């Protein structure tokens, strides 16, 4: 019996929508991947016959739990916690934890699904997962954050382990939160299992370079993507949305490479600084004081603050690097960027461009680095942290950074090669989905129906 791959993917997509009702972000992530896989499945129908495509869109396990905690005034709050262990074909589950009021199962599922393919692209042995909670860390005291993290880990610890599932940071989770979670895990398990979490502090098993890795990796990817076309970052005007971990180190590395980042943002608005965003000020406001981005103009009075985060995409630029959150660039934003002369876009955030926005970029010949490939430097360095924990050794910053750079260049090349192999030259969206999928699919084929 011959299988029509296109029809199969359409039917499977419809089943995914039905089975995961009211989860539009997950549908969006699946739709993009299934569309990319059609040529692969036409060539290799056994991935359909062996149930691999159907399995890859179904998480291996979904854990939903109650997270009660007490605030400083003695009031009790009850949040919801999630961990979606999506696929463990090529390694232990691996992926971050997001704390944001918008978190629900559909967000965690889309992130877990993308993580499977992203982790495969790194070339390192890590499966895919994601977790989080609808807890809002904004305005909480250190002690409230600690009590929340402890309660979250009291349940999560049953489901993770250095050879089982290794969480890390994402939106709302950085070094402070990982520290509290690690402390609680260690206490409950009575074991020093350093590799159970990544993004740890340097005094207890963290890796040099992990804090910088996603942003630096993004810029290494962009540099390679431009170099291939005879271009470079030097002298380019760059927009970076967000002002968190990924955004800060994207700004820092872009400046090192001779580009000028003129704007950053948060969910309230954006800052425009024609002189180039000062990264030390950014670190002071966001990492030390944990304040809002409008504070920037107090330090640099010639800079401008504008309400509304989407306005950032109306600033003329050569390169746009969305580093805040999902669906922050829609079709209209993409059209404005193209009209204003933007030549390259690379995604530091996960799924920051809508499907319609992506189409605008691809149709207009914009160099476009999709999240799975372009922001994989963070999780790749997490895997390097796991390696160091297993060896009970630590590498220098230079060693880690050199490995990260190599990994990002390889991701660009493998992604671009996979696209070309299927007649989709320069479509890195398809290339990333294909290259990420094939490795996982081969492992699943070898493991049988499990
Ligand atoms: P942070 O919490 O450090 O920063 C998040 C930034 O994004 C903040 O500026 C925040 O603004 C903004 N933001 C968050 N939610 C929204 C929203 N709904 N609308 C507008 N702005 C928003 O997170 P990270 O920098 O770690 O993560 C940023 C993105 O990068 C996410 O998509 C994450 O999944 C992705 N990523 C992170 C990796 C990592 O290693 N940390 C690795 C790979 C991808 P505000 O303060 O106003 O909320
Ligand atoms: O989206 C991501 O890749 C991350 N948040 C990093 C995950 C990790 O395990 O380092």
TrEMBL record:
A GO-annotated cellular component: cytosol
Recorded GO MF terms: glutamate dehydrogenase (NADP+) activity
Domain Glutamate/phenylalanine/leucine/valine/L-tryptophan dehydrogenase C-terminal: start-end pairs: 207-448
Enzyme class: oxidoreductase
SUPFAM superfamilies in the cross-refs: Aminoacid dehydrogenase-like, N-terminal domain (SSF53223), NAD(P)-binding Rossmann-fold domains (SSF51735)
UniProt keywords, alphabetically: Oxidoreductase
Biological-process GO terms, alphabetical: glutamate biosynthetic process
SMART domains assigned to the protein according to its UniProt record, in alphabetical order: ELFV_dehydrog
Annotated InterPro entries: Aminoacid_DH-like_N_sf, Glu/Leu/Phe/Val/Trp_DH, Glu/Leu/Phe/Val/Trp_DH_C, Glu/Leu/Phe/Val/Trp_DH_dimer, Glu/Leu/Phe/Val_DH_AS, Glu_DH, Glu_Leu_Phe_Val_DH, NAD(P)-bd_dom_sf
Protein EC: 1.4.1.4
Pfam families: ELFV_dehydrog, ELFV_dehydrog_N
Gene3D superfamilies linked to this entry: Glutamate Dehydrogenase, chain A, domain 3 (1.10.285.10), Leucine Dehydrogenase, chain A, domain 1 (3.40.50.10860), NAD(P)-binding Rossmann-like Domain (3.40.50.720)
Stored PANTHER family: NADP-SPECIFIC GLUTAMATE DEHYDROGENASE 1-RELATED
Family: Belongs to the Glu/Leu/Phe/Val dehydrogenases family.
Assembly and interaction partners: Homohexamer.
Record protein name field: NADP-specific glutamate dehydrogenase
Species the sequence originates in: bioreactor metagenome
Name of encoding gene: gdh_2
